[in-house]
Amino acid sequence: MYLKKLSLYGFKSFAGRVDLDLTPGIVGVVGPNGVGKSNISDALRWAMGEQSARLLRGSKMQDVIFAGSLSRRGLGYAEVSLVFDNSDQFLNIGFDEVTVTRKVYRSGDAEYLLNSVPCRLRDIVDLFSGTGLGREAYSVVEQGKIDAVLSARPEDRRSLFDEASGTMKYRARKSQAQRKLLEVRADQLRVGDVASELGRQLPLVQAQAQQALRWQGLSETLTQLDVDVLSYDLSRLSKRLAELRGEIQSLEDQERALTAKASECEAALEQARVHVAQAESEVEALHGAGSEARAVAERDVGRRSLAEQRHQALAERCSQLAARVVSQRERLAKLRDEYDTACSQAEQARADYAERGSTARQAEERVSALTAARAAAEAEVEECKSALFDVLARASDLRSRVRAGEDSTKLSGSRAARVRAQLDEKRRECARIQDEVKTIAREGEALVRQSAQAEAEAARVRAALSAAQSELELADERASRARSDESSIGAAYTSLSALQRDYEGYGRAVRALLRSDEWRRAGLLGVVAELVRAPREYERAIEAALGPQVQNIIASTSRVSEQAIAFLKEKRAGRATFLPLDILRPSPTTRLEIPREAKGVIGLASELAESAPEHRRAVDYLLGRVLVVRDLACGVSLVRSGVRLRMVTLDGDVISAGGAMTGGEAADRQGGLLARARRLEELQQKLEEAKSLVQQTELDRARAHTLLSQQQTSLEKAERELSALQLAVRGQNEKYKMARGMLPRAEDGLAGLQLELESVVAENERTSAEVSGFTSRLEAVDSARVELEAQLELQSQAMSRVRAEEAQTAASYSSLSADTAALRERVGAFEAARSKAQAELESSRAELGRLEEQERAAREEVAGALQEMERLSEAAASSALSFEGAQKQLEAARARRADELALANEAERAARTARRGQSSAGSKLADARILDARLSAECEAVAERLLTSYSISAEEAIARNLSIPACLSREDAQSEIKNLRGQLEQLGPVNHAAVEDSRNLAERYHFLEEQLADLESAQESLSEVVRECDRVCAKQFTQTFEAIRDEFSEIFQDVFGGGTADLVLDDPGNPLECGVEIVCQPPGKKLASLTLLSGGEKALAAIALLFAIMRVKPSPVCVLDEIDSALDEANVARFVELLRDVSRSVQVIIVTHRKRTMECADTLFGVTMEESGVSKVFSIRASDYRL
Q: What is the 3-state secondary structure (H, E, C) of 744-790?
């Protein structure tokens, strides 16, 4: 990425629009002091979000707007645009070209645009955060910052390293999270106070609501119970009578058929029981064989996968070592060439240094002799000049008087001509003003019509803008609701995930063992709640059946169970129950233990529960003798029929095998540990749906925002046009009034010009006479001047020859002295380079030998790993085939077992039905006939009572289809009516509105409780964000600091030709807040404080630090403002080399006065101020100024 274009309008001294087309590489900005060069670097910093007017060399932000000059008025706003080439997607924005624009108006209003779209300052700051650009960037170095880098306090200097390490955005995120954390805690206190108050009010209101509901229930029951009892009796008796007569006919037929069928069913039942036992034995045997085959297959596949990973890693390492060997050989050859070159250069430098020293001493003696000769010649010239100056003074005075007279004469003549021309112009002006008045009147009428049209257009656009604003508000509201839902679901998901991960709700022993992966690797597979699942409708039943066993730990072997128990004893970490799969012996339940005619039986709990095949033994052990039934009544019925299994209802009530019953209200309506995983999956799905909804609402909001921006732009355009037309109308009116008032003034001016012409002609005649006298005196003085000038010329020529020879000799001496000093430094540099090259050569040879040895060893390991992988592949394929065969046999056996069980169950049901029918058919038939007579009499009695007491016929009573509650008998219902009347009298006054009040208050109280839980979750999440930011900041800062430290030491030695330099943390134990100290020791000096360094040494040390940062974290654009001003020529040369090195990866824009720095630039921009207070820019290419 690089900066393609910089556009300025009205920024500081740039009055007009200025466009700078920039190129990659080094861009130089040159010009005299005070012409506005530094304003270009200020414009870059300002456009990227700088908010400090002081850093922009102003007192307030409006100071950046062009304030005006002698010939120009000030502007109303300033604008700067930066166009970046982002084809490499360095800025994560999705555009190949990024334009950042900032404007500020005199009113103080400001706006930011990103690719011509309005945005916030935060968007600009986030865009450049971590890139080295922006407000706190180390890549923009203005005047004075070089010295400030060294003189700043350690904690202030740290900001450079924070920006380079990219921790600024994490610090900003941490500050934002801390602010939100304070807000969450404040909200938590507020919501807690309200919830506490509602909690005190709720029991009172609920008591009143219960009283009101009880009164309503009693009243309604009392009104209808008596009629309901009689209607129910009549309906029940009538239905029963009809059913009984049908049953009598059926019983007569069944009695004959059941006798024959009973014998057949008994024989079929015995045969089915034999087949079921055979199928059970076959399935058990095949299940064990399949489990063993599966374990062998999984083990072989795992070993083969590990072998493949090892082979791939070894192959990659071998390739890397081969590449490093080739690279090291190339480096060794290069180092040999460098060493030979350094030796030859050092010898040549020593010879040149000896030769130049002798020549410099001879030149010094010749310079002293010529200096004495020059002083004598200068004294003679000064005497002649003094006499000549007196003559020239007299001649100058006379010439001045002559010129003044001649000028006055010319001026009078030109003045007369000018007055005559003005007379003619004034006459034409009078005629022109009359024509202009008529033209202005016509133009004013046209502008009034255009203004009315523009006002109508502006009204239409305002209406459209209002509609767009409404749409944006709706989109914002939808987006806000979507984000709120996402946040709420996310908080619940995070909370539940943390509970599952940390084993909250489990025993102390479970947490001590399973929070660490060590015990899982040892063979502890997990707790029952993790490894067993149940359909949602059976979750409560399965969890009640498991009870505390839900926290049992399933282990692969008994050995690891013994080790875990020993660990718990040693650590005093509590007790736990283990289920070792190798010795676990479940007791399965046969179908014969469950009565075939039993109603309400769901199935065995072990069959309803779900688990992996390898954990099925533990499931059968825990739930193999647990029967799931619909309700307690079904369970009690089964116990009475002789079933000796443990039973559990769908509501979680438990009946032991011996008949003990456990039940009541569940402590957790949401489910226990088994339901936690299911809720976690449901929350994850809801969270994904919420995120999708947030994205959609954000897209809708963006579209509405774009439409609003378009309407705002249209409105601004319409209002600007309307304002311009209204201003033009007012201006036209002013022009009309002005033109009408100009005509009398033109006529007065005509008379004044006539009088002025007469005065000028008289003054011209008087001046001509004075000029003639001055001319004669001037001729005598000129002759004396000619003689003195000839004498002075002779003396000056002699002195010039002496000076030329002296200057030539002095220049030769200076050049020889400088060359001698440079050669001395060169000799030292070449010697150091030779020593360094020799050391690197030896080190490279040793490194090459080590790498070649590592490469040979790696190739041998790759061959061995390949053979092992092929062997394991064959074993895995064989195991997989064995497992597939065992699985097919097991499935077939299970299918046969299911068929046999179905046949056995059917045979048992048929036999039992036949036996029961055979034994009771006769007695049932007799009882049914007696019951028919009794029911007929009862039905007639009830119908007569309804008719006489309540005027309700039998048909109407049956049509009501009412029923008495199951818990009441007919006599109890009569007693209940009397009881209800007494209860209504005891209740007394009742608040009937309390029911609605109680419901509203309870809803609000539960809502506040949920809010408190959400706030607690949000507080934990924000705390985790703060901790995570601290961890990332410490890691990134430490890594970047160490890299900059190494680069700074290397660059310091390069630019100083030796010495040492280091960066030190003033508090290494606190890398997040500590400052950074700079330690420098130039060559030949003792280690001292930075304040004792010279100005050039300080500048050079600071430059070394900045360039070290750019090497470690290069910014795409770097702006340097006269940072080379304190360097001498030798150090400028080193600085230029650093600049060229950095420009390979960074676009450098440098403001400079130094010639060498200018020469290294690829493009130069010159800044001038041809007009006072207004800067102008011109550019030249490198090919134009390097010739």
A: HHHHHHHHHHHHHHHHHHHHHHHHHHHHHHHHHHHHHHHHHHHHHHH
